[in-house]
Design a protein that fits this description.
Layout lengths: L15 H5 L2 H32 L2 H9 L1 H11 L3 H4 L2 H19 L6 H29 L5 H29 L2 H22 L13 H11 L6 H18 L2 H4 L4 H22 L2 H14 L13 H13 L4 H11 L5 H29 L2 H24 L1
Length: 396
């Protein structure tokens, strides 16, 4: 596909429907949606397969969430490829790698060690793909519509995860995990075709050669004095600590964990919809601090073991606070030079996913020695403390 050295910027979009009329955004969005669905199905299938073969809760949990720890490796080593190579070509190459990895998981006789190895490899390349995709997103839509586009993607990610787990549970009642891997492979392949057919190539954002040295140079600049570290830490740490609270729902109330998870998903969807669609950019900036507090404060009620109805409402309200990522991501984009936008957004996504895994480990460790309610309260209190202490640095 020919390169257009001076692509025309689309007109500002003020609704999800207007965004989807942008052919390139619609292609990126459809490819992203199919990838989330495929990832959810393959993760569920792998967790089921590992549980059946090992009966180990630890290995089962690692099989479902271990890829989040591998994403940070991509952020630390080769994330500069998100800006230092042709974005469309890079994204398609990474999609081919993902397709091959998911297809390999469908092999019936594959040893568990090889499956875990594939999981780490796919997690590594997933972080590079996220950086490339989000760098493209910043070029496909105008800056004024960026938060709206991220809002739609966040809503879709949460919705597809819920739908994927539900469909995966039904499929695994009638099919083997290997057949579900096959379905995930098909979804990944369709996503690759959609991106190839709709997204056009663009010039390099940076003339500098990508690689380990350039990745580290940009990453160090992010965390240097006067850099964007306060924004990144606020995108990572409070989010990760509250993910740790959610990881304890089953331990806190086994019979009501499903209700908590559903309430959390509903609150997150409502928050992203309201903040991304209803609020203006100025309003999002003004409400960012309050949203970060909302993310954690309702969980402090778990210190007194409230009735289930009250606890469910608290989870719903707190999950709406996840929408605090939208104004922070918008602010990060404004502060990031165009040549490194893909890398910075890839680092942000990888760090957030890794902190969610670390938050689950932290909360689980506290619960192991005390109680789930105490651990949820401790994680929420720490999240509030980080938000309040770092507020002046974020504003600056």
């Amino acid at each position: 596909m020919p390169t257009d050295p001076s692509p025309c910027r689309p007109l500002p979009a003020t609704s999800y429907r207007a965004l989807l009329r942008n052919r390139e955004f619609a292609g990126l969005y459809a490819g992203f949606t199919l990838n989330v669905a495929a990832s959810t199905l393959s993760g569920f299938a792998l967790g089921t397969l590992v549980n059946r073969q090992t009966r180990s809760p630890l290995l089962t949990a690692v099989s479902m969430y271990g890829a989040t720890f591998a994403t940070v490796l991509g952020a630390l080593t080769l994330m500069s490829v998100a800006d230092g190579s042709r974005p469309r070509r890079t994204l398609l190459t990474l999609q081919w790698v993902s397709l091959a990895g998911v297809a390999a998981q469908a092999l019936p006789g594959l040893p568990l060690a090889a499956r875990f190895g594939l999981l780490l490899v796919l997690g590594f390349f997933q972080s590079l793909g996220t950086g490339t995709r989000m760098g493209l997103l910043a070029e496909v839509v105008p800056t004024s519509a960026y938060a709206l586009a991220r809002s739609l993607m966040n809503i879709t990610s949460g919705g597809m995860a819920i739908l994927g787990y539900a469909i995966g549970a039904v499929l695994l009642r009638y099919l083997s995990p290997h057949a579900v891997f096959g379905a995930a492979t098909a979804l990944t392949g369709v996503g690759l075709i959609v991106v190839a057919a709709t997204v056009r190539e663009r010039p390099l954002r940076s003339a500098r050669r990508s690689g380990l040295r350039r990745t580290w140079t940009t990453n160090l600049a992010l965390f240097s004095p006067g850099g964007r570290r306060a924004l990144l830490l606020n995108l990572w740490v409070p989010n990760g600590l509250i993910a740790g609270c959610e990881a304890l729902f089953i331990s806190y109330a086994p019979d009501h964990a499903g209700t908590f998870l559903a309430a959390g998903s509903a609150g997150m969807l409502l928050g992203d919809l309201t903040v991304g669609r209803v609020l203006t950019a100025g309003q999002r900036r003004r409400w960012a601090f309050a949203l970060r507090l909302l993310l954690a404060v309702p969980y402090l009620l778990f210190a007194v073991h409230p009735p289930m109805l009250v606890a469910t409402v608290a989870v719903f309200l707190a999950s709406a606070g996840f929408a605090a990522t939208l104004p922070l991501q918008e602010q990060l984009l404004e502060l990031t030079p165009v040549p490194v936008r893909g890398q910075v957004q890839g680092v942000e996504s990888a760090g957030r996913m890794t902190c969610q895994g670390l938050g689950a480990v932290f909360a689980g460790g506290v619960a192991q020695h005390f109680s789930p309610g105490t651990a949820i309260t401790a994680a929420a209190a720490l999240s509030v403390a980080v938000t309040v202490v770092s507020r002046p640095f974020v504003a600056r």
